[in-house]
Specification:
Elements (H helix, E strand, L loop, with lengths): L1 E4 L3 E4 L2 E9 L2 E5 L6 E10 L1 E4 L5 E4 L4 E5 L5 E5 L4 E10 H6 L10 H10 L6 E3 L3 H8 L9 H18 L10 H19 L7 H8 L3 H12 L3 H19 L4 H7 L5 H12 L3 H6 L1
Antiparallel strand pairs: 1-3, 2-3, 3-10, 4-9, 5-8, 5-10, 6-7, 6-9, 8-11
Helix pairs in contact: 5-7
Length: 285
């Protein structure tokens, strides 16, 4: 088993950050019960099933995140279904952060009241589906110039805390085990279609393969990717075709086949509708 925990990075009094990466199937975690410390965990790559040992579970896919106290996960087991995993955790000591809050959060009530009332009233973890706003926050924790890493970590942590403070989380935003499994399936279907654009796979075929209702599949896909399956895959087909026109010497007919069009004329019409120019003209640009 390969595992990597970065050293703990102090951000503010009572607030610390740690990155983690695993090449493993599972990991057992044991620590003291600390009800005054909150963990905010974000999944970057892979999947995480977190068995808290007290009957509570967390299920995370890329972009999803969870919140719970360190009392909730005292003796727990982390399972990584894909065999690899990357993410990061922000640790917040509510007592220390309340005494010495970051300047921008003074008198905000984030540490004294908001976090504890929203996420610490019982020992049940909360896990939430990511969205465009959280993605813009989480992505900035990675791929920054060395000299700017700490400033970005500190600023984005404050932005995340402000987001958690202002957002009223509904039951629709909070993932259940069933919803998390749906998201995992839909993302797997998405990856399959993108990796095999030469194939024309129907929604009915996918629903049978993955044992998911077609109506549920269409609704879940749109909620995650913001558009219909057909529109989303067409966009990827057109972008891939444009890339092949620029970078390869394949004929237009071969490119059409490679992105799932048996008819040269249908491909040409679809390409022109998308890029406002014929494929042969696009290649000349």
């Amino acid at each position: 088993m390969n595992e990597e925990w970065t050293k703990v990075i102090p951000l503010y009094p009572g607030i610390k950050l740690s990155y983690l990466a695993f090449s493993s199937d599972s990991l057992s975690v044991h620590h003291k019960a600390r009800a005054h410390i909150i963990q905010i965990h974000c999944c970057k790559e892979g999947q995480l099933v977190w068995d808290m040992g007290n009957g509570n579970h967390v299920y995370l896919n890329p972009g999803d995140f969870s919140l719970h106290t360190m009392k909730a996960c005292t003796d727990s087991v982390l399972t990584f279904p894909s065999g690899t995993y990357q993410g990061f955790t922000i640790y917040i000591d509510l007592q220390e952060a309340s005494r010495n809050p970051p300047e921008l959060l003074k008198n905000s009530g984030v540490f004294e009241r908001i976090l504890s009332e929203k996420f610490c009233l019982d020992e049940r973890p909360v896990f939430l589906a990511g969205n465009e706003q959280t993605e813009s926050i989480f992505s900035a924790f990675y791929h920054q110039p060395e000299r700017l890493k700490l400033p970005y970590q500190k600023i984005k942590t404050l932005e995340l805390l402000l987001y958690l403070g202002k957002t009223e989380f509904t039951s629709k935003q909070q993932l259940s085990e069933y919803q998390a499994e749906q998201i995992r399936i839909v993302r797997k279907i998405h990856d399959q279609m993108i990796q095999h654009m030469e194939q024309r796979i129907t929604i009915e075929d996918l629903s049978r393969q993955y044992l998911i209702n077609p109506t549920t599949l269409k609704a879940a896909f749109k909620s995650i990717y913001g558009t219909s399956i057909a529109a989303h895959i067409k966009e990827h087909r057109m972008e891939q075709a444009a890339k092949m026109l620029r970078q390869s010497k394949m004929s237009i007919a071969e490119i059409a086949q490679a992105v799932g069009y048996d008819s040269h004329s249908k491909f040409t019409a679809a390409f022109k509708a998308y890029f406002k120019v014929l494929p042969k003209e696009y290649r000349k640009q």
